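ok so i was messing around last nite and threw this chain in just to see what happens. nothing serious, just curious
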Amino acid sequence: MNHEALALEMRGLRERVTGITDTAVAAADGLLIAADTADTIDPEGLAALAAAGLGLARRTTQASARGTLRQTVTYGSHGCAAVYAVGDTALMIVLGDEGMDVDRLHRASQPTLDRIGDILTAKAPEGV
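result:
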């Protein structure tokens, strides 16, 4: 897996959407794959919690016949946390401050999610 390409995608999203403070990519089971987070954030714990929340949201979406889950957003007094499904096997976590435009984040994140999905599913060259 190309960790440098993942880091570039996460950094690029942060540059395109004002207010993003932290990003991470994790497997659907909660194992951290890559993180660009502040020292005050435990990226492994964040990945595990986000995966659990995404799993519950997926089940809720299925039980209520709302189609395929795209994302969840949790709002707090100091900003928000958005968790996006990357196919069925991974997720991306985006943390933002109070000024982050969540609608802009949703629009800007889709191409990033597609590229992250491609990076995660790319096969390593033979002999590597």
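not much to say yet. The mean pLDDT is 93.
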